[in-house]
Amino acid sequence: FITCVFGEEKNGRILEKATLCKMARGEMVRYLAEHHCQTPEQAKRFDRLGFRFSPEHSDENNYVFCKKGR
Known about the structure:
The chain is 30% helix and 29% strand. The protein is built from two helices and four strands; from the N terminus they run ββααββ. The protein has a four-stranded mixed beta sheet with strand order 2-1-4-3, with helices on one face.
């Protein structure tokens, strides 16, 4: 399984905000369906609501998608 984490990068840390996470999860499901994604690698291309895959925060089983804090 792959776990997707959606958070805001602020002061070098990843902060998850419940409402934004819920919206991002819904957008991820929509993205995966619309693009007929078959592999976890394809999920890394997700780029909606300002979230982008962060390789420096991710590992093999946890994909972290960040947006820059304000």
